[in-house]
């Protein structure tokens, strides 16, 4: 049976769909002419040119750092030794040398100035006139620099309470460190009160104390007294301390009135009716108290105001 090739029929076009009347009304007529209206004429102004954009810089390419060299353990070669070159000598001025003797003299002058200040205040508190030779410090400093023993005489005046003070001779031993008996014996120049100011240690040697005791025996019949101070003791005034009460040496009239008020005698006061102060006490030495003298002590109290107490000077125990 012979096969027959059948030709395929082409697809027929679809018939056009009819547009309904509703669709025609809804769709606008595109063929309708535009209204005869002239468009607005743009003003003859050239539009401003837009600013040109700045060129964007290309990012820099990262540069790779070279790797750090590894430390080597090879020993560094020593540089060859250079020949020593003699430098030109420069004549520099040597530093000023301070003479030890000059420095010691200046230190001694400063120390002696402090001693003079305390000594002047002490003699003024005792009732002596300090405007005379003791007030001329420049002359005393010049005499002190000579190094020899010298003395100053103070005239007696009425002390506290109207008590007459005998004349006072102040003897200075400026640079005598090893004080001996002959130095003390040379200081004696007739009956008067003596105040010896020596450049010595805190305590006097037994031979010096023995020489002072000999002068005391000579002065006993005349009623005079001798005292010895070191320059270290007189560098500061102990009476100017803020905690130190005020001391007043009583006259004979004041002592008699006190004994009458207390209904006691002076002998009973010496036997212990009054508090005591030794004659080697620092305040007693400052005021020049002797056994039998009575002092009035004024203390400031926070509740009772000023409080008066009394002490009698007695010899220090040996």
Brief account:
It contains eight helices and eight strands; from the N terminus they run αααββαβαββααβαββ. With 318 residues, the chain is of the alpha/beta class. The strands form two sheets. The chain has a four-stranded mixed β-sheet, covered by helices on one side.
Provide the CATH top-level class of the domain at 100-236: Alpha Beta
Overall pLDDT score: 74
The CATH homologous superfamily of the domain at 100-236: RNA polymerase, Rpb5, N-terminal domain
CATH architecture of the domain at 100-236: 3-Layer(aba) Sandwich
Low-confidence stretches at least 5 residues in length (pLDDT < 50)?
Answer: 1-5, 30-35, 37-43
Morphology call: elongated
Task: Return the string of H and E elements.
Answer: HHHEEHEHEEHHEHEE
| Count of beta strands | 8
Question: How far apart lie the N and C ends?
Answer: 177 Å
Overview of this protein structure:
The structure is a single chain. The protein is an alpha/beta fold and 318 residues long. Among the domains are: 100-236, Dna-directed Rna Polymerases I, Ii, And Iii 27 Kd Polypeptide, Chain: A, domain 1; 238-318, RPB5-like RNA polymerase subunit (Eukaryotic RPB6 RNA polymerase subunit, Alpha-Beta Complex). 28% of the residues lie in helices and 15% in strands. It has eight helices and eight strands; from the N terminus they run H-H-H-E-E-H-E-H-E-E-H-H-E-H-E-E. The chain has helices spanning 21-26, 100-126, 137-146, 181-187, 206-219, 252-262, 266-273, 282-287, and strands spanning 150-154, 168-173, 193-198, 226-230, 246-249, 276-278, 294-301, 305-314. It has a four-stranded mixed β-sheet with strand order 1-2-3-4, covered by helices on one side. Strands 5-7-8-6 form a four-stranded mixed β-sheet.
